[in-house]
Amino acid sequence: MNSTPSVSRDKLMADLRVVIADAEELLQLTASQAGDKVADLRARMEERMAKAKDELSHLQSAAVHQARDAAKATDHFVHDRPWTAVGIAAGVGLIAGLLMGRR
Hints:
By secondary structure, this protein is an all-alpha fold. It contains three helices and no strands.
């Protein structure tokens, strides 16, 4: 399984959280500002932040769902083929040991 998509998804979610926090702080700082343009900008930002929070929620639930599916698939594989799983684990351990021994 390639971990690059999950790493970039985690980074995207973290970056999105930072952007949302910064935007909320900006909205709080401009709360005392008056004027039609400022009010319009605040309304658009609040709408976009709500969409971003919703998208972040969807990304998180998709990541949790994918992790659960992977865990179930692994569990089924180990229960269906225990000796194969033991062989794979031993092979991975051997390779890891060889790589660590080189250092």
